[in-house]
Amino acid sequence: MVRVFPDGEAVTDFLAWLSRHRLGRKRLPDTLLAAGFRRAGVKRLITNNERDFAVLGWFEIVTFRG
Q1: Per-residue pLDDT tens digits for 20-55
Q2: What is residue 46's three-state secondary structure?
Q3: What is the pLDDT of residue 45?
Q4: What Cα–Cα distance (Å) separates residue 39 from each residue in 2, 9, 56, 63, 64?
């Protein structure tokens, strides 16, 4: 496991994504998480909330079917 924390560049990405994609307050946590993942080099996400991350256009999304 690698811990990922948002740095200044992740916050810059976060704010840019919020503005570019006109994301609302309900999207803040997932968008900040995605920005941290991007800066850590993560390219693929496993999630049941594909819509929350697909709009960002950065990740390969794998839908979890439990």
Answers
A1: 999 999 999 999 999 999 999 999 999 998 888 999
A2: strand
A3: 92
A4: 13, 7, 14, 22, 23
pLDDT of residue 51: 86
Name the token pair of 28. 């803040």
Q: Which of 53, 44, 45, 47 is nearest to 66 (CA)?
A: 47
Tokens of 1: 């496991």
For 11-32, letters b (16+ CB in 10 Å) and e give eebbeebbeeeebeeebeebbb
Q: How far apart are CA 24 and CA 41, in angstroms?
A: 25
